[in-house]
Every structure is written in structure tokens, then in C-alpha cells.
Amino acid sequence: MKLEKKEGIDDVIFGEIQLLLAEKRTALSSMRTGIAIFALPLSVLSVLVATSKYYDALKVLHFLLPLLALNAVLVALGAYLIIHSILRIRHYDRHIQELKRQHSAIAEFIE
Q1: Rounded-to-10 torsion of CA 23, 25, 30, 31
Q2: Which of 10, 52, 85, 107 could pair with 31 in a Cys bridge, judged by C-beta atoms 3.0 to 4.6 Å apart?
Q3: Which comes out higher in pLDDT, residue 93 or 106?
Q4: How far apart are the C-alpha atoms of 48 and 57, rounded to whole Å?
Q5: Do 82 and 35 meet the contact criterion of CB atoms below 8 Å apart?
Q6: How far is CA 43 from the centre of its chain?
Q7: What is the largest CA-CA distance in the chain?
């Protein structure tokens, strides 16, 4: 009877760890999206700099200002996603370490 109860507890702990790892994968995916969003404005600005000899910035300022504003928003969104993902990953890692500390029998299965 006690063995069945212990196996049930172990199953619950394994399920909790699997859920935490799934959440960690989601946070990593969010970080990947943030990096891609962060890289887009840098690419656009590099094209603008590379082609700057073909236009006069003051004559196309009405196009440049909204583009620069959009790039600033994208940089802010990308930075938010990256920072939020890092914080969530650290939270999940701490939670998994706490579970490993509390249940030493399953610690050998988790790196």
C-alpha cells in the first residue's frame, strides 16, 4: 500500500517536472521570437545606411520618422520578450532545482 502511494507521488512529481519543462520550452520559443523581432529593425536600419547615398534624408524625412518610430517599437517589444523569457526560464529552473532537492530519489533522473 505504501509503495503504491510513493509511486503515485513520484508520478505527480514527474508530471510537475514535465509541465515545468514544457513551460520552459515555451519561454525559449518566446525568446527566439523576441530575438527575431529585435533583429528586424537592425536589418532595416542597415539597409537604410547602405543606401543612404541614393537619397537625401531631409527630403524623405516624412518616410523615415514613422519607420524609425516603428523600429523603436519593435526593438522595445523584442527586448521585452527576451527579458521576460529569461526571467521565466530562471524561475522554472529554480522550481525544478527545488523539486530535485525535496525529492532526492528523482534527482538522479534530472540533470
Answers
A1: 120
A2: 85
A3: 93
A4: 10
A5: yes
A6: 21
A7: 82
Please report, to the nearest 10 degrees, the dihedral formed by the alpha carbons of residues 20, 22, 27, 30 taken in order. -170
Using DSSP, state whether 29 is helix, strand or coil.
helix
pTM: predicted TM-score of the whole model, two decimal places: 0.81
Q: Is the pLDDT of residue 63 over 50?
A: yes
Residue that has been written with the C-alpha cell 524625412 in this structure: 61
What Å distances lie between residue 12 and 61, 76, 101, 102, CA to CA? 60, 39, 16, 13
CA nearest to 41, candidates 76, 84, 83: 76
Q: What is the mean pLDDT of residues 19-47?
A: 94
Listed in sequence order, the residues at least 6 apart from 106 whose beta carbon sits closer than 8 Å to its beta carbon are 10, 13, 14, 17, 99, 100
Dihedral, CA atoms, 14, 17, 22, 25, nearest 10 degrees? -140
The answer to whether 31 touches 82, Cβ cutoff 8 Å, is yes
